[in-house]
Write a structure and sequence with these properties.
about 290 residues, alpha/beta, 2 domains, 12 strands
Length: about 290
């Protein structure tokens, strides 16, 4: 059997066929924004066999950081330590899943591993919902979970793949297409804002709700996505593009869709909208379309 080398998505049958492979590492990244304890609680009840839990707030964010949005990035040192504790080393194939479509928060874990330097990481398409629909096994304990390892060997996060407000601000006058916002259309337009204290979007941003990349809880075919996503760039090359959302979580989902569609290399604005509005001097736009 050939080695696993999944870097974007993996489907349920492919993962099930390799479930007992000693090189496989599974991360359960289930998260509920309105209830920060829900992911860990659900994991404790049942999860894929030998999975470890990646908590959005504890592991995939650092809430001690101020002014960088609702889910500030952890430090590379802290994240590398946590990755080692999950039993992950460079030779392992990692598969991350959440409750369903990858947006809460499997794509965030996928992206953080990528920027740490781990290439062999993919998101389970359809998540736990698809796994359960196939009637596949789960576990309620830690039996067989990988033993902790030393911190993941990494020189740090690949900063060239992470955008900040300081990167975005000087580009506001450039032609549209370089900045894509993955929030829902009503939030983007500024008609509603259920989470952040200011409504609207970064001037010049193009809206692409991440939900449009899905069908029945799974990613749409690569060819379909490319046909829709490429025109949104208006001629910009994917590595010139910056992706954002409310707090840097569903922006990773949009990045995953672009990578799946053969449009790799975009950067994620980690602070996203919640980080942008932390400084009231930064401009805000609203629209009716």
């Amino acid at each position: 059997m050939t080695g696993m080398h999944w870097t974007t998505l993996v489907d349920v049958p492919a993962l099930a066929a390799r479930l007992d492979d000693p090189q496989l590492r599974l991360l359960d990244a289930r998260a509920v924004l309105a209830d920060p304890q829900a992911g860990a609680a659900a994991f404790a009840v049942s999860h894929l066999p030998r999975a470890r839990h990646a908590d959005l707030d504890r592991d995939l964010s650092d809430h001690g950081v101020q002014g960088q949005g609702r889910h500030p990035l952890p430090s590379a040192v802290d994240f590398a330590r946590r990755v080692g504790e999950w039993g992950i080393a460079p030779e392992h194939q990692v598969v991350v899943y959440d409750a369903g479509d990858g947006s809460m928060a499997a794509a965030r874990a996928w992206w953080l591993l990528r920027v740490l330097g781990h290439a062999r990481v993919a998101v389970l398409d359809g998540g736990l919902a698809a796994w359960r629909a196939a009637g596949l096994p789960e576990s309620g304990d830690d039996a067989g979970a990988p033993a902790p390892l030393p911190p993941y060997p990494s020189p740090g996060f690949a900063q060239a793949r992470i955008a900040t407000a300081a990167d975005v601000l000087p580009r506001l006058g450039e032609p549209a297409g370089w900045l894509l916002d993955a929030r829902g259309a009503e939030r983007f337009r500024g008609e509603v804002e259920p989470i952040d204290p200011v409504a609207g979007h970064v001037p010049g941003a193009v809206n692409r709700p991440f939900t449009l990349n899905l069908r029945d809880g799974r990613f749409r075919p690569a060819e379909e996505l490319r046909t829709e996503l490429e025109p949104l760039l208006h001629g910009w090359a994917p590595p010139d593009a910056v992706l954002m959302c409310g707090s840097g979580v569903t922006a990773c989902h949009l990045l995953l869709a672009m990578e799946h569609a053969g449009l790799p290399g975009a950067r994620v604005f980690a602070g996203s909208w919640s980080g942008w509005i932390a400084d009231p001097s930064r401009p805000v736009a609203r629209s009716t379309q």
